[in-house]
Amino acid sequence: MTETKVISFRAHKNLESWLISAGSGFKGGKTEILKLILIRAALEQTPVGGLGQLLEHIVGNNRQTAIGDTKVYAIRLPIPDSRIIRDAAAAKRQGVSEWCASALFRWYEAFKQYKEAHQEQDGWLIEYSRLYREKVAGLSDVYAQKAEGAVI
């Protein structure tokens, strides 16, 4: 059995309905989409170095997260996945909870745009879930190759 770790964070409670809606296109429902959102965000985050890192630190991408009207989310992930998320949060100089809440909000913004553009098409949610899973799988493959020191 794979060792796991629970990651928990707070995000705006209105995001729950969006997760349920999007999750209906995934076999694992809301749990699967939440895992994929966090893993994808961590894998897509590229390390910033040098001047870019300095500018990001000065300008910052840290929005204050609301304290009221939030819901606690908790997700059980394999330890390697939780490390990837922890490292992504550290790279942004954020706590894991803050990073996860930001990742969920960025997903919401992108999903809302996708839904508005495609909701008139039959099967748009099934297509979205297929494309989302493929993107995460592709990113995971690239990450694994980089971790092994392979040249891409």
Beta content: 5-15%
Q: How big is the Rg?
A: 16 Å
Q: Output the structural class.
A: mainly alpha
Distance between the termini: 31 Å
How many individual helices? 6
Give the overall shape, derived from the CA principal axes: globular
Main beta-sheet strand count, sense and barrel state: 2 strands, antiparallel
| Uncertain ranges | 48-66
Mean pLDDT: 85
Number of strands: 2
Helix content: 55-70%
Spatial arrangement of strands, main beta sheet: 1-2
Instruction: Compute the number of structural domains.
Output: 1
Please trace the helix and strand order, writing H or E for each element.
Answer: EHHHEHHH
Descriptive notes:
With 152 residues, the protein is mainly alpha-helical. The protein contains 6 helices and 2 strands, in the order E-H-H-H-E-H-H-H. Helix 1 (15-23) packs across helix 2 (29-44), helix 2 packs across helix 6 and helix 4 crosses helix 5 (96-118).
Short descriptors:
152 residues; mainly alpha; two-stranded antiparallel ribbon; 6 helices
Describe the structure concisely.
This protein has 152 residues and is mostly helical. It is 62% helix and 12% strand. Strands 1-2 form a two-stranded antiparallel ribbon.
